[in-house]
Amino acid sequence: HKQWSEQVLKGQPIDGPLGRSWTIPLVRDYKGELKLPISQLTNLPVQGTGADIMVLARISFRNRLKGLNLPCKLISTVHDSIVVDTETAYLQDLANLFYQVFDDLQENIWKVFRYDWKTPMACECKFGPNMRDMTKIART
């Protein structure tokens, strides 16, 4: 964050590890003095990089889904979640597919972005009628 702060103070963009960059303008406080927008400085690169990873995971899932004859509708991707709609009978098969996607995500980040992602990518699959009442699905 210190390096990012220094870059923003110099008017330079922050470059993320996967090729996206963010220009973060300084803001004026109540006294009219220029200040670093700390929330943008910390959130934009982290959330933006997370969004890039989720796009890759969603595409990988969709590619694996093709030809498997598993009825599944991709509903949305929000921050760190990919939401799908399916029949109960296909939950385990789809969960296993998601676990495979995340098993291969570090390798796919390298293939697409040429970035050596060091942090293991975890996957958790849940189902339920709403976001509050969810049940985990273990890998089989």
Would you mind describing this structure in some detail?
The protein has 140 residues and is of the alpha+beta class. Helices cover 41% and strands 19% of the residues. It has four helices and eight strands, in the order αββββαββααββ. It has helices at residues 2-9, 38-65, 91-103, 105-113, and strands at 14-15, 21-22, 27-28, 34-35, 72-78, 81-86, 125-127, 135-137. The strands form four sheets. A two-stranded antiparallel sheet has the order 1-2. It has a two-stranded antiparallel sheet with strand order 3-4. The model has no long low-confidence stretch (mean pLDDT 92).
Shape: elongated
What's the arrangement of strands in the largest beta sheet?
1-2
Distance between the termini: 40 Å
Helix content: 40-55%
Q: What's the Cα radius of gyration?
A: 19 Å
Largest sheet: 2 strands, antiparallel
Round the mean pLDDT to the nearest integer and report it.
92
Stretches with pLDDT under 50, minimum 5 residues: none
Quote the beta fraction: 15-25%
The count of β-strands is 8
Which structural class is indicated by helix and strand composition? Answer: alpha+beta
Query: What letter string, H or E per element, gives the SSE order?
Result: HEEEEHEEHHEE
H/I helix tally: 4
Question: Quick summary of this structure?
Answer:
By secondary structure, the protein is α+β, with helices and mostly antiparallel strands.
Task: Please outline the helices and strands.
Blueprint: H1 2-9, E1 14-15, E2 21-22, E3 27-28, E4 34-35, H2 38-65, E5 72-78, E6 81-86, H3 91-103, H4 105-113, E7 125-127, E8 135-137
Antiparallel strand pairs: 1-2, 3-4, 5-6, 7-8
